[in-house]
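Running this now, will post back.
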Amino acid sequence: MATQSLRLLTAATLAAVCIGAAAQEQPKEKKASDIALHGSVQADVLFPEGDDAIGLKPDEHKILFNTYADLNMISRYVDAGIRFEYMKFPLPGYDSGFGGYGIPNIYAKGKYKGVELTVGDFYDQFGAGFIFRTYEERTLGIDNSLRGARLKINSVPGLRVTLLGGTQRTYWYWGRSMEGFDSSEQPDQPRTSNQVWGANVEMDISEYSSAMKDNNLNWTVGGSYVLKHEGLGVKDIPNTSYRLNFPKYVSAFDFRTHLQRNAWGVDAEYAWKSQDPSFDNGYIYRNGSALMLTGTYTKTGLSALVKVKRSDNMAFRSQRGRSDLAGMINNMPAFAYQQTYALAAKYPYATQTANGEWAFQAAFAYNFKRKTALGGKYGTKVKLNLSYIRGLDKGPKPEGINGSTWGTNGAGSKFFGFGPQYYRDINIQIEKKFTRDFQLMFMYMNQYNFDVTLEDFHGDVKANIFVLDGKYKFDKRFTLRAELQYLTTHQANKDWAYGLLELSVAPYLMFTVSDQWNCGDTGVHYYMAGVAGNYKSNRLMLSYGRTPMGFDCSGGVCRRVPKTRGFRIAYTYNF
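Update: finished.
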């Protein structure tokens, strides 16, 4: 089976590379009426191994991989694209439904004088995504595209209109209800697919006001509406003779405004969702809402951001019985800095979409000028980020059937009431260039993460994290970068240390060795060594070693990553 899978993987990759090579032969300079081909190939492969030292048993499959091949045609009036995926045996940590293969994305788009019509699979977002965001995030295993039609009208100055509708992708199915919500549970109702419709309007008010233009004032307003239809309308309550009657239609509204004058900017957005009982909220019948306010200030050498968000019961899926990363119609942004350093990202924050939260974030950045006391010869950059997130002050939960909250209105909450603290993050980064060839970055981070935010993975964590990142450029070809990180905590697996050396040989090669050491508890070393090569549009990375259990997060959505050991291949080709 492993041999057959490897052959299919190789065949798919080679086919896409041949297509890309043919596309690269097109002349660089094209007329407006010419056709251009663009695309990519991506293959991530793991040959897993067992490891008694970290409690890892051998995988039943000898090879695990995620592969993608995209091909897009671009022309003046018509665009089209297709994507092939082969994940028969996906990488560790992806949900079980992720495995499969086929063509999940194909579309055709017509464009003429500000009017655009797309038929097939597409992605879009209304505002901040409170009520609608479809996107692809391969590292998390998310692809919630819509299959249907979308009309965009931009022909009127200052006015943008979007109308769309279709069925949503959930792994290798479109609009079908999940197991446990099938016709056997409700034989009196026909099996129907789930559908999502939406409309979005944005208007640039300053486009119609000469006074606003003269005063450098930009003002935009927008509004959105999303309607979900879910055909399966009832569910049996376990161990009872009762049934929950679900609303077949769920509506959501979103209103927003943006003001910008010179360096100052202010944003406000409000969303509301009708009753949508689901697995996420414990099948309660309560409306959802979200409010976000943002203020920004930006000028040369200085930037500041302050924002606040209150949300409650805003989990929104095309299939209410799901509990994984599939079928999400919306996305609630996280108010926590997305760290890229290994130990700083070990205990990330996951947005509490259903439970609700009060979230605050402030970020400041300042560049001290060259030849000043703090700037020195080359200048100094300082960044400060603060995140503070609490739950809502909810009252007692009403008791439903058999002591559960199923079928009730759920627990109410005061608008300005604060519940338990979920997350706190204070971090400061200082970047300093000491010579023309040597620069250093130091970061300190104080973090608190409540147990609920990562599904009882580690309990509460209070951590102090230190990062030192240095880079030295020997000459035009050779650059050496080193990382030293230390995380200290009395919770979870206690203290961790991390070290990395990275040698770049421009323009083709990069060699990396690293070790993540659990020095406070198990004493296990999670070593890794790799080499990456770039040539024209090709990038190939080979690595071998261990990875600890953790989380991969993006925008407040997290995927649990199990510990692994083995040989990895990562290949990408863009044309």
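Helices lie at 2-24, 210-214. More later if anyone needs it.
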